[in-house]
Design brief:
Blueprint (H helix, E strand, L loop, with lengths): L6 H8 L2 H9 L14 H7 L3 H9 L13
């Protein structure tokens, strides 16, 4: 979309774990960032999607990534 969000970022942002799993099984990049530098993990955590956050952590995504304003 216009903010640089991919299908995986959108799925994680909205808490759609099953969609995220399918996209990951098709080699979606779990570490990708949107146009503001937010990762799937940042967005899922910010919106309280615990199942998605736990899944991303189980997949080994980095927990120390920062967005474009370093928050």
């Amino acid at each position: 979309n216009n903010s640089g969000s991919t299908a995986l970022i959108c799925a994680c942002t909205k808490g759609h774990l099953e969609v995220a799993e399918v996209l990951a099984s098709r080699n979606a990049n779990l570490a990708e960032k949107n146009g503001t530098g937010d990762t799937c993990l940042i967005l899922a955590a910010d919106r309280g999607h615990k199942a998605v956050v736990n899944w991303l952590l189980d997949k080994g995504v980095a927990i120390d990534e920062k967005d474009n304003i370093n928050t």
